[in-house]
Design goal:
The chain has a single domain, classed as Trypsin Inhibitor V, subunit A (Trypsin Inhibitor V, Chain A, 2-Layer Sandwich). The protein has 81 residues and is of the alpha+beta class. Helices cover 17% and strands 32% of the residues. It comes from Rotaria sordida. This is PASTA domain-containing protein.
């Protein structure tokens, strides 16, 4: 089951690495975007999967932004994709 946007907001201000591990355990594909002097990261296109019964599903994805200049690597923004 996916977390709601409101549930994801509880991670703002927490460490990126710890949050990434936690979300991956819950089945999320996590994409990191670093802001600051050395901005990095990107979010690839969504991949839709066609099931044998004809239904379309997509993987659970979370986009996490953080300030790369912050030594504590705290999350500044997080959302579903």
């Amino acid at each position: 089951m996916s977390l709601s946007e409101q549930d994801l907001q509880k991670y703002v201000g927490k460490n990126v690495d710890d949050t990434q591990k936690e979300l991956e355990k819950q089945g999320y594909k996590v994409h990191l975007v670093s802001t600051g002097r050395c901005a990095t990261g990107y979010v690839p296109e969504k991949k839709l999967h066609m099931n044998a019964d004809g239904t379309v599903t997509q993987e659970k994805r979370a986009i996490i932004s953080f300030n790369g200049d912050d030594p504590k690597r705290k999350i500044t923004s997080i959302h579903h994709d």
